[in-house]
């Protein structure tokens, strides 16, 4: 079992460095995990999110999504990204000592019938989860500080205008303009 040493504490972690046994978590350990990801001091906002994550996990057995955090933790999405840059749900789960949500490995899709089974299961899960409609999802992305741009070549090819896009789209830009805007940033979709 992998181990991680933080300060004077050594704990068991999973392959991605998340605390293996949630019962080992303490506020002192949370401070050490936070320092490990560059958060030197946990503010009141950090603690609000961390405690919400732990309570939700211990009650339901799952790690809350970014949408759930923004709606139910008492900290809005924009503030979540200020508190935990580059992935609030993942980083808050790390500090809270709970597992990150696990994805089914890609290879499992090659098993006959698995694609249909997983699609059916996903539809059932979506019915019970708090998945936002596309318009609200785009607002969440925009509110988190991400810029959303349409590709000028595609817009020209399909004879579209800015009026054809949803309001969170900031502008229509060329690839060169996109790379200038994204310089030094983290590009998620191109």
Automatic annotation (TrEMBL):
Broad class of where this protein is predominantly found: cytoplasm
Gene Ontology MF annotations: sulfur carrier activity
Keyword Cytoplasm: yes
GO-annotated biological processes: tRNA wobble position uridine thiolation
Keywords: Cytoplasm
One of the Pfam families matching this protein, by short name: DsrC
The keyword Cytoplasm belongs to this UniProt entry's keyword annotation: yes
Cross-referenced InterPro entries: DsrC-like_C, DsrC-like_dom_sf, DsrC-like_N, DsrC/TusE, DsrE2-like, DsrEFH-like
One cellular component (GO) term of this entry: cytoplasm
Subcellular location: Cytoplasm
Family: Belongs to the DsrC/TusE family.
NCBIfam families with a match to the protein in the record: dsrC_tusE_dsvC
PANTHER family registered for this protein in UniProt: SULFURTRANSFERASE TUSE
The protein's name in its UniProt record: Sulfur relay protein, TusE/DsrC/DsvC family
């Amino acid at each position: 079992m992998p181990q991680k040493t933080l300060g004077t504490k050594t704990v068991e972690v999973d392959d991605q460095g998340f605390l293996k046994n949630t019962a080992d978590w303490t506020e002192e350990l949370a401070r050490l995990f936070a320092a490990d990801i560059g958060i030197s001091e946990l503010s009141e906002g950090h603690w609000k999110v961390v405690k919400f994550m732990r309570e939700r996990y211990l009650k339901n057995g799952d790690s809350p999504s970014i949408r759930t955090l923004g709606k139910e933790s008492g900290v809005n999405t924009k503030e979540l990204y200020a508190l935990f840059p580059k992935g609030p749900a993942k980083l808050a789960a790390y500090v809270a000592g709970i597992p990150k949500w696990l994805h089914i490995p890609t290879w499992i899709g090659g098993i006959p019938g698995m694609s249909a089974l997983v699609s059916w299961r996903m539809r059932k899960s979506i019915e019970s989860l708090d998945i936002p409609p596309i318009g609200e999802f785009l607002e969440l992305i925009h509110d988190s500080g991400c810029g959303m741009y349409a590709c000028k070549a595609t817009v020209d090819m399909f004879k579209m205008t800015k009026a054809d896009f949803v309001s969170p789209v900031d502008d229509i830009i060329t690839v060169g303009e996109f790379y200038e805007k994204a310089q030094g940033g983290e590009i998620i979709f191109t």
